[in-house]
Structures are given as C-alpha cells and as structure tokens.
Backbone:
C-alpha cells in the first residue's frame, strides 16, 4: 500500500538505461537553473535603493553606476564559469574547481559554503515568495510558516518525480517573468524617450523600517558605495548554478551549457540595468510600504491589471527560484559522497533517476531553517551572501591556478580575467562578511569549519572501514568443518517450538533449549512437558531462574555460561523462533520479545571478538 | 545509559520473592485508595447547591435531606462492597462479580465502564486540582494543560516506582485533608450551637455561570430533586476502589480491607453530611465566583490563614485522587489480560513489582483526554458518572444473584440490601444517562459496546492462535537429515563476506552467493574478483541485474527462482552478512540494507506455507 501511494505521488520507477532521456534541452535547462539568479535581481534592486537612500537624491543618482559595476562583475563571473564548464564538463562547479586546483581543504570549504547556500536559497526564496503573497492577501499572514512548508513539500514532490518533469513545471513561471519584465523595460524606454528625465523630489519618503534611515542625510562616501555594492551583489547569488549541473544538459553538453550560461547572464544584465536605469532616469521613489520595483511598475502602468501581472510574475519566479537548489544541492552532495566526505546514501540515484536522498536532506534542512527563523526572509538574508561569495572567490582563484599550470593558448587573458574576478569577489566577500557579521554571517563563518571537520571525520571513518575489510592475502575460507552449537530460547511446548527444533537439528547435532523461568516455580512443569513429547531426544533443556521477571538478561547470562564450556572457543549460534501474525495490528497482542533479543545479541560484542550468528525461524499464524 | 536513568527514576528491580513485602497496612491503604471517593465530596457539594439553587431558599432547605439519601446510598454500597470483599478476596470488584454471576457480557460491560471511569478520574482530578491552583495564582492559567500533564508525569513516575512508595507519598495530603475537614466540622458545630440557625437571604446571588439560573425561581418538584440527587451522587464515584484492590492489603487481607472500607464510608458520610448540614443550618450562600465549600469556610473562619489551609488541603486531595486510578486500572486490565480480553503485555508485573504497562496505558489515555478536552474539568464531568453507576448497578445485581444461588446463612437480608442498592444505583444511572446524554454521556454509551466488541475480538484471536499452536499428536520432530540450501547476498569481496561464507559452509554444503548489479555492467568485475580469491570453490556466484537500482526486489525474485529448483520444496535459508559499526552514529554512514531485507524476508509468506529461516552473521567493525 505504501508502494502504491509512492507510485501515485512520485511515478513508477525508471530503468537506469533511461538516464540520457531525462536530460534537458536549453529552454528547459534555463528554466530549471536560472530562477535563483533571476529572482535575485528583485531583492538586489531593493537593497541598492535602501543603501543609497540614506544619502538622499545625491545617493540615488549613483544607482546606475553601481548597477554597471555589478553587471560588469556578472559579466566576468559568467565568462569565467563558461570557461569552467569547458574545463569541467562533468559538473561540480566551485567544489570541483577549488578541490582540483587549490587542494582538498579549499575544496571542502567551497563545498560547505555551497551546501549552506543552496539550503538558504530554498528557504529564502520560499519565505520571500510567501511574504509577497501574504502582503497582497493579509489574511494569509499568520500562516506563512505553514504556507512556506506546504510549498517546500510541493517542490520536493515535483523534484522527487524527476528532472524532466521539474524542468517542464518551471518553464511557465520563468518565461512569464522574463516576458513581463522585458516588455516592461521596452515600454519604460519608450516612456523615458517621450517624457525625458525626471527630477527627484526634495524630500524622499523614508521606508517603513525606521532603522534604515539616519536622522540626517549621510554624505556619499566611498564606504557607503562599497557597502551598497556588497548588498547589491546579492544579485549574483545563483550564477554558478549552471556550471554545477552541466551533465543534465542534452548532448552536446558543453556547448549547450555555455550557451545557456551566456543567455542567462545577458538576460540578468538587461533586467538589472533596465530596471535600475529606468528608476534613476525617471527619478522614481518608493512609498513607505512598497518596494522600489513596485513603485517603478506603478509609475509606468498605474495600479491596474498590468501591475498585478508583474507582481504575480515576481512571486512565481521567487517560488521556482527555490527549485535550483533541488537541482544542484543533491548533485554536489553526490559528488562529495563519491569522494567519501558525506554519507554514501547521498551518492546513489533513486528509482526515479534523481538523487532522492539528497533531495530529502535539502528539504529537511530548508524546512528546519524556515521553522527556526519563523519564516522571516530578512532574518535569513544576512546568512546568505557570505557562502556564495566565498565559493565564488575559491572557484575564481582555482581557475587562476588552473590557467597558470596549463598555459594553453590565450592563457594570459583568461588568467587575468579570472584574477580580476577573484579579486572583485574577494573584496565583496570581505565587505559582506564585515558588514553583516553581527547580523547572522557569524553563524555561517562558524559552521563552515565545523562542516569541514565533519567531512574529514566521515572520510577517515570510511578509510578505516575499508582497511578492516581489505583482503590482504588470498586465503580461502577455512573452518568449514565446524558444526556450530545451537542455543534456542523456548517459552513452552507448541508447534512453533517443534518447527524451530526441526530446523536446528537439520544444521547441527548440538542443540540446547533454554527456558527462562518468568513465572516462579514453572520450570518443573516445563521439563515434564518437554520429556512427555520426547523432545529431550533432540535437544537438552536448560532452565534458568529469572528473579526480576525479565527474559533477556538471564538468557544472555545463560549463553555466556554455555560459551565458556565451548571446546573450540566459538560462541554458540542463537536460534529464535518468531511468531509472525497474519495482520499487522496483531503485533500489539503478542509480547515482542524476539526483536529486542535479536538486537541485544547482534549489538553485543562477543568477548573473544568472534561473531555470534543469529537465526530467525518464523512461524506463520493464519488468520 | 538508558538503564541508568531508569534505575535513578524508578529504583532498582525488585525480585519476585518481595511480592508480599510491598503490601500496605490499613493507614497507607486508606491513603492510597480513598482520595477518589473523598475528593468527590468536594464537587458533589457544589453540584447539589447549584441544582437546588434554581428553586431558591425553598430548594436549598432540601439540601440536608438529599445528603441523607445519598449517604444512605453510600451506606448500602459500602455494606454491599464489604460483602463483595469477603466473597472475592482476590479482588476484581465489579468486573469479577458481574462476570461470575451475570455472565461474560455484563462482566465485559462492567469492565469497560470501570476502565473508562479510572481514566476519567485521573484526568478530572488533575484538571480540577490544576484549575483550583490556577484560580489562586492566575498567572498559571494559560499553562494549565502543561501543568496537568506535568502532574500526570509525576504521579506516573511515583507509581512506576512501586505501591509502597505510592502509599507513603499519599499519606500526608490525605490525612491533612481529613484532619482539616474534621476539625472544621467540629468547630462549625460549636459555632452552630452558639449562634443558632441562620436565615437564607431573600435574594440569593446567582453563580457566575449564567446557564445554571432560569429567569424566575423554579418550584421544588420531584424531578428537580431527582436530577439534583443524580448530580450529587457523583460523590460516590470511587467507592468501589477498595474492593478492587483487596490483594494489596497486608494479611489478613479480607479483614483489613473490610475495616478500611468501613472507615472510609464513615469518614465520607461525616464529611458530606457535616459540610452540607452546616451549610443549610447556618444558611450559607455562595458569592458569584466561589464554591459553596469556600463560602462555608469563609463563614466559619474568615479569609485568613485557616481558609488558605483548607483550600490547599482540597487541592492536594484532588491531585492525589488521581492516584487511585493508578492502583486500580492496572489491576483490572491485568485481570482481563489473564482472561485474554486485552493484550497479554498488560498482565505481567514489571521489574518494580507493579503493572508497568497498565500504568503507562492509563497515563497515555489520561494525557490524551487532558489534551483533547483542553484541560477543562467541566467538559469531562458529564462523561464521568455514567460509567461508575453502570458498574455499581451490574455489581449489585451480580451480588443479588450470588446470594440467591448461595443461600447461606442470612442470605435474605443480604439479597434485600444488594437489591435495594441495585435499584437505587439503577435509577440513578437512568437519571444521569438521560440528563447528561447530550452533554457527553453519549460518548461513553457509544464507547462501551465498541470496547466490548474489541475485548471479544482479542479473545477470539488468542483462542485461534492457541488452536494453531496446539500439539495434537506426540510426533517427535522430523526432517533432521535435511540440509538447507543457503543463499547469501554479497556486494563485493571483503573480510565480512569471507566470515559469512565461512559460517555458511559450516552448516550446509549447498551455498549460493547472489550479487545484485546495482551499478550497470559491474557483474563481470565482481565474478572475476570472486574467482581470483578462489571463492567459487565454496559457493556458486549468481548475478542478477537491477534495472531500477534497488537491492531488495531483484534479490527476492532471485531466491524465488532458486526455490523453484529446490528438490524437496523447502525454501532456501537466507544468510545476511551484517556490518556492526563501533559507534551508533556510524549507522548513518552505511547503507542500512540488512534490516529492510530481513523484514521483507520474514514478513513475506512463502508461497508453499513453509517458513524461510534467516541467519544474521555480524561483522564487528573496530573503532
């Protein structure tokens, strides 16, 4: 029945031979991998507006300049990652690049940063989407944790069904968002040409959050610009997604992935420059309780149907942005599992050809973040950018070393470009880490070394296990002539005991039945029944008292005593007759002593370091 | 470590030989078994006041008359149960009496009613105690579900430690309550002698609950008196406790139990008649937000230290009233388990010589009631009296038949007395059932037949299992010469596999290793390694493809195919090599395929109805 529900929700299992069929074409891959980056534009816009607002109109006049710097950085990043795609067609992104070029430690740091970033992206995108929805329909506001978790569940199920379906489901919202925003920018350019530049008002309304505005206007200092740049650089989170997921593209994978990367970067640049440029040129300012994007849309179209359509598209793209984490997180942990840094279960493909365990781990961690942070986007954002820029910096630095070592055609230009990227992302990392340390970045900075230690401990464990299992010599198995002694607990004389004895004497001629006297003075009657049925001809009956009315302790003591008299030092095999009721709820009606006894036997190391085998002989009850 | 915590909380195990030592003397037994009945006086008082208040002063002048009727009923019940104690010294009360004299069905009805009553008593007493506490300290009000559950946990732990400790813990609050109330009544009689009778005011303040008071004064009709009698009769819930628990008394059990029963009835009568008599004689009326008992105490002592002491004693006795359920509920379910009507696990004594499973079941059900009814006493009260009076009526009727059949010396008087008791409790049952049906009694009336059906289904199951296990002939076990085929899943060639093969070939010369090809095209390499280590001399290697990358399905299909070629029709034995990591958290690092495979094998019936044995061969990892 569980299987039935599972197939209904997730689809039937897919054979391994179908791996190639589930790959994505460029249109679907863009939809599956870009929403994280595209949706970042929405909140980066707001961050830049809020950052410059403290300096008034003079500050806001710097918006487009900052946007150009960030877009330039985007260009550098995109070109670098296109080179990474060519150099590493099996995917892996920052983790692979840092590990192969800089060494294991930087690789693990990059992996830890990336993993946390994917989890944060899922949580932030969902809470931001739900918060936007709840702002439009205030009745939903008290339920936003529940709504976020419901969306998380929905996206998890879609992803467990498999990649092709996930890509298909994402096509509509992503292209709706792109279409609506590109149309808006085109219309806005027309409006700007007709109306000419706007003039900022003398007094700009402060935003609803009072903490953002100081008492008086701040001057436009270099520090203010740098800080605002760092905030706006959150627009770039998610840019690396495509380079991590190269193998999901259709053949030729490298070409398709690079083209998709270029298309995404160009689209992001147009959206970012277009919206910020229009905002500055038309001198749009936001009311106290709306975002700057919302103010721009109202300025261009009023508050009618078009406004609602743009807001809806923004909401949807934020929701699907969470999906990029579902494509990349399981892929990164699978790569790390292959190298033995995380549990092996995260490596394998599930029966729908997706990394099911990785998806479930991501969903669990994101759900935990949503609950712990009360579904509040603003509490999560400071944790977010640090990891992304740490991974960028390590990846760029790795590429610098890569070109230096390789020195193929045109290596100087490539090295210079990656060096500029490493420097820019490194500076941004320092600025973000310093300015957001107290706000939450400290948690990430603390967790990264802890995760790295954990990764190494896990790999040490696997190495140790491998060492213990290795066959040093080619000795064939020995000792085949030994016949084990069988010890079997009995609670009475009935058909189940006969079946078990039957089995025991078919594999050994040394069988001992142990009766634990749970009710005082019952041993005599038991021995009489045993002998009346002639069972003493097959197995010796040993009775042991149980002063505290428990089964397991006296039984374990008894087999220890029996082992001491074992001639060859091998522990006796324990045979457990087990009732199997016909219906699951019948289990409630029987003392379940077999299971704890088995566990006690298997997980209790034998004192001589020799393993004790345990045999289950089921007895099936009918009806 | 779990054992350590358990011993700290619950004490060390006690040997069976200590059973007699944990019995209670009369003083402790009264403390352990009477609080339910004694605490009932507190709310019965209030019920009578509220019931007669609707008829004004003319109604309240009937209080003492009603109290006399209820006390007379108490006397009849107490005398009847003293006879029951003599006739049934092994305890069991209403269940045993009804079952032995009226037949199985009435016995089961009485048992169902009693079980629900004990659960309700625990829940009602705790919520009433907590509500009283929270009334004194309003800051605790929002936390009363949590407080009730905390008290429930505390009482559960005290009872899991064992009866003697439970009796000791109850001595202080019960005798404090008795001392304070008896002193108050003595002082009140002095006050009454000095001051003479009081006069009811012309206008009596209505209680805070508006639903209780009609618009105009009601006349004093027979129906009003009957209804108030039925409400006041809740004072008698818990009277049967001692007769159910006869075996916990010290020898001579019968004499001690009868004397304790008599002492309890006399004390209850004094408390009930004394408080109601004083209230009527002094014409005490309650303010809008206090109980009539609280008003009486204020009238006698003012609102000072003595008032607080009496209220505190009332609170404490309500809390320990819950404890009587812990003595009786596990005992009744243990009796029923002996007869096979409830799961067997409820029968046995735990290692502290108490019925641990019964105590845990009671605590779970009471906790559920507390949570479902929001910790509200008034919502629970209507469910409460029906069960008690149903059990009373069945028990009294059973005693009538008992005397009729036995006709020993003085049987006529005894029969007449029990007949009167049966009639009175039967009438009360009808009145309570009718007047409280919509308020919650319907739930109990619905649940009782369902529980009876469940009891019978459980006994049918045990009977059927017994039939299947019975040895009809004395045939000795046969088939000892058969050597089972051993089939063993292997995932590679390493030390664990060698150990398992070693064991397999020591019990059978027909060993087959099955390799499930989880990674495509890995079978060839596996076979090469198998042969390189010479393992093909010990066991044939069979490889099976796994198109959906799962282990269990292909393996089960493979052993089904192997079973078809079995010459004697017996299914092969499956041997599972199992890694046992050195630390529990290492389990997270290994694919746990052994456990689900074992379960799938044991709980999958073999098509020929023959049982398949499963052997675990552990391989202990060091470090």
Residues:
């Amino acid at each position: 029945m569980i299987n039935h529900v599972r197939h209904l929700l997730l689809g039937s299992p897919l054979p391994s031979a179908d791996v190639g069929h589930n790959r994505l074409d460029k249109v679907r891959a863009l939809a599956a991998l870009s929403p994280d980056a595209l949706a970042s534009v929405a909140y980066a816009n707001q961050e830049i507006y809020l950052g410059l607002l403290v300096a008034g109109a003079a500050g806001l006049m710097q918006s487009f300049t900052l946007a150009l710097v960030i877009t330039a950085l985007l260009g550098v990043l995109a070109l670098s990652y296109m080179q990474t795609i060519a150099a590493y067609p099996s995917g892996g992104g920052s983790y692979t690049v840092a590990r192969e070029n800089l060494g294991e430690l930087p690789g693990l740091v990059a992996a830890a940063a990336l993993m946390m970033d994917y989890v944060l992206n899922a949580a932030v995108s969902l809470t931001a989407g739900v918060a936007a929805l709840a702002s439009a329909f205030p009745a939903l506001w008290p339920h936003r944790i529940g709504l976020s978790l419901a969306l998380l569940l929905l996206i998890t199920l879609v992803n467990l069904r498999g990649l092709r379906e996930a890509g298909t489901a994402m096509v509509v919202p992503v292209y709706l968002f792109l279409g609506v925003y590109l149309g808006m920018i085109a219309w806005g350019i027309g409006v700007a040409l007709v109306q000419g530049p706007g003039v900022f008002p003398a007094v700009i309304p402060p935003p609803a959050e009072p903490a953002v505005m100081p008492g008086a206007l701040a001057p436009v200092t270099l520090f203010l610009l740098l800080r605002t740049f760092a905030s706006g650089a959150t627009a770039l989170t998610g840019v690396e997604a495509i380079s991590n997921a190269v193998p999901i593209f259709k053949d030729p994978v490298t070409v398709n992935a690079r083209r998709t990367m270029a298309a995404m970067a160009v689209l992001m640049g147009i959206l970012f420059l277009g919206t910020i440029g229009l905002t500055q040129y038309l001198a749009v300012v936001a009311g106290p309780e709306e975002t700057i994007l919302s103010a721009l849309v109202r300025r261009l179209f009023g508050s009618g149907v078009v406004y609602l359509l743009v807001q809806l598209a923004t909401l949807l793209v934020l929701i699907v942005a969470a999906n990029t984490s579902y494509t990349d997180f399981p892929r990164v942990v699978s790569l790390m599992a292959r190298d033995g840094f995380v549990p092996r279960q995260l490596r394998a493909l599930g029966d729908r050809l997706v990394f099911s365990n990785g998806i479930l781990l991501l969903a669990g961690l994101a759900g935990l973040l949503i609950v712990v942070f009360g579904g509040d986007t603003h509490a999560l954002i400071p944790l977010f950018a640090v990891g992304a820029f740490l991974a960028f910096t390590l990846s760029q630095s790795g590429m610098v070393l890569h070109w230096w070592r390789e020195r193929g055609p045109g290596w100087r230009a490539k090295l210079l470009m990656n060096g500029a990227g490493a420097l820019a992302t490194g500076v941004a990392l320092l600025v973000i880490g310093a300015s957001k340390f107290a706000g939450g970045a400290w948690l990430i900075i603390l967790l990264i070394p802890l995760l790295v230690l954990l990764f190494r401990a896990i790999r040490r464990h696997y190495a140790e296990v491998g060492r213990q299992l290795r066959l040093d010599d080619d000795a064939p198995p020995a000792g085949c002539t030994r016949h084990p002694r069988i010890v079997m607990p009995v609670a009475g004389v009935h058909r189940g005991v006969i079946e078990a004895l039957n089995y025991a004497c078919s594999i050994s001629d040394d069988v001992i039945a142990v009766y634990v006297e749970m009710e005082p003075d019952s041993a005599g009657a038991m021995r009489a029944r045993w002998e009346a049925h002639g069972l003493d001809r097959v197995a010796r009956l040993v009775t042991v008292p149980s002063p505290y009315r428990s089964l397991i302790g006296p039984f374990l003591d008894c087999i220890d005593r029996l082992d001491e008299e074992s001639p060859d030092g091998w522990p006796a095999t324990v045979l457990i007759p087990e009732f199997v009721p016909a219906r699951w709820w019948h289990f409630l009606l029987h003392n379940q002593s077999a299971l704890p006894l088995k566990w006690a036997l298997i997980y209790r190391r034998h004192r001589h370091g020799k393993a004790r085998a345990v045999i289950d002989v089921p007895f099936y009850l009918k009806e």
User: Anything to note?
Assistant: DSSP finds 22 helices and five strands in chain A.
